[in-house]
Amino acid sequence: MEASDMRGIQAITAVAALCTAFSAQAALTGYNTKGAFDVAISGLTGVQTVDFDSVASGTSFASGTGTGGLTFTYAIPGYTAQVSSTFGTTSGTNYLGLDNPDTAFYLGDSITIDFGRVVNAAGLYLVTGNDAQAGDLKLSVAGGSVFNSATPDITLSDGKAFYLGLVESDPGLGFSSATIYGVPSGGAFLAFSADDITSAAVSAVPEPETYALMLAGLGALAWRRSRKR
Predict the structure, then answer these.
(1) CB neighbours (10 Å) of residue 98?
(2) Domain edges within the chain
(3) How far apart are CA 102 and CA 191, in angstroms?
(4) Could you give phi then psi for residue 142, rounded to 5 degrees?
(5) How many Å apart are CA 25 and CA 40, to the nearest integer?
(6) Is 3 in a helix, a strand, or coil?
(7) pTM score, two decimals?
(8) What top-level class would CATH report for the domain 27-201?
(9) pLDDT tens-digit profile of 35-57?
(10) Which of 144, 171, 183, 201 is deepest in the core (most CB within 10 A)?
């Protein structure tokens, strides 16, 4: 192979690598509506949603156990995570809360959800009463957090449903768990439950523009070689 051809291949490879690097830059983005979250994960693979409707109401999960491929870890003295159907929710009749009179978590509580795999997106509904304020609820992963907004994504007959979602666009920066927090706020009281827990992964397949660039470069190299004959 001639030196000029080798330099051509090296240049094509370098530009393709640069294009791939730009398309895979880390970007953890938070979402407060399910519609926007669903658009963001439309190109992802392995989308899974646990809505608790396949589990009988009253089913409890000790810390370190779970359902639907999820494992719940928490330390909330005196209470156990439990599926309930007492109040309204976002899909079906069941949701995840605690075995207390409100069948719910409170501000100051937290629970970690392990997905049993590396994912690049996590989202869920947190359902509250009508007195929720912006910033009362938080969803966190290794790369960052998102808080609830002042406006619910869904208004229910007996409360509000806030959507919290996080999407990491870099396939190499996935996470395997997410934590829900009820953010303490000066002694304020707020009960909330969780539903429709969704996770998804990012495909590591190169972007279409990378393929196009490489094919164009190889075509140009072939044309150069044919001109020399």
Answers:
(1) 23
(2) 1-24+207-229, 27-201
(3) 7
(4) -60, -30
(5) 16
(6) helix
(7) 0.79
(8) mainly beta
(9) 999 999 999 999 999 999 999 99
(10) 201
